[in-house]
Amino acid sequence: MSLANILWEPALNWDGAATSLETQALTPIENPVELHQSLAVGVSKLQQTELYPPLFRNAFGSRTITEENVLKALAQFERTLISANSKYDKYLRNETELNSQEIAGKVLFSNHPDPTIPVAGADCMHCHNEGNRLFSSTDYTRGAAASFFNNGLDSQPKDAGRFIITGQESDRGKMRAPTLRNIALTAPYMHDGRFKTLEQVLDHYSDHVAKDSPNLDLNLLTATNKRNGTQLSLSATQKKQVIAFLLTLTDSTFIQDKRFSDPFKP
Ligand code: HEC
Q1: Is 122 in the pocket of ligand 1 (CB under 6 A)?
Q2: CATH 3.30.70.120, applies to 6-82
Q3: CATH fold of 87-254, please?
Q4: Which atom in ligand 1 lies closest to the alpha carbon of residue 205?
Q5: Distance from residue 80's CA to the centre of ligand 1 (Å)
Q6: In the chain, what are the domain boundaries?
Q7: To the nearest whole percent, how much of the chain has pLDDT over 70?
Q8: Which residue from 140, 142, 165, 172 has the least number of CB within 10 angstroms?
Q9: Which InterPro entries match (predicted)?
Q10: Distance 265 CA to ligand 1 centre (A)
């Protein structure tokens, strides 16, 4: 998942397993399928370098590196990863215009479909919150429980998602919807990386939502732009428009920020 604007996310990982960046940071370090090393061993390796003890002294007042301070340092760095200068942000600040295709995509993104009215909807904003500019499922007004959804990828979800954390059947198959900021740059998509392109993502939401999936979000269950339709049914043009809008969320200021690049590369 993207780490852009992660400081504002109260629940982390696809299933919300962690609720602070400090506790989250421990998981990938020790997890056997990720870095697979105990933090204690990592700390003793850092302690033996020339580079890190002085940096920890500058930050925390002591050359002795602790597990707690490693997690704090990682978390605090993540809190600086703020993306707020995409074309869409500039548009909101009246610094640039969106073209007609991007505007059409924005309208689709934010509209609930209703076949009885002439304006189509793609329904994305129900779960990718545009209102708070995060474009994730985090919804401060509705609270953490409302931030996990089943978006109908499979009739039988292989990954239990939020269920692992709460043990509630009503949470089986639900995931956090990640931010869509810089989404054009972060393929493949979904928790299992099943989609290689945004076109495939739009095809999923438009034509292939698994309606029998347990706990499928109610909006997705009923959303359609066609009378008596069973799927959202966006036209090829409408899919392109939504993608054009998603491309306005690419923030090259963020992507090219030297402070976020590999410090060991000249
Ligand atoms: C019912 C809630 C819901 C709706 C509506 C919804 N999404 Fe999602 N979206 C999710 C969830 C949940 C995930 C993560 C699912 C997973 O990986 O299992 C996701 C994932 C994504 C991803 C992949 C993100 C990544 O980092 O891999 C993209 C892109 C995306 N959605 C775009 C859209 C677009 C475009 C729309 C509107 C056409 C839309 N979504 C509508 C809930 C929703």
Answers
A1: yes
A2: no
A3: Cytochrome Bc1 Complex; Chain D, domain 2 (1.10.760)
A4: 38
A5: 25
A6: 6-82, 87-254
A7: 98
A8: 142
A9: Cyt_c-like_dom, Cyt_c-like_dom_sf, Cytochrome_c_Peroxidase/MauG, Di-haem_cyt_c_peroxidsae
A10: 34
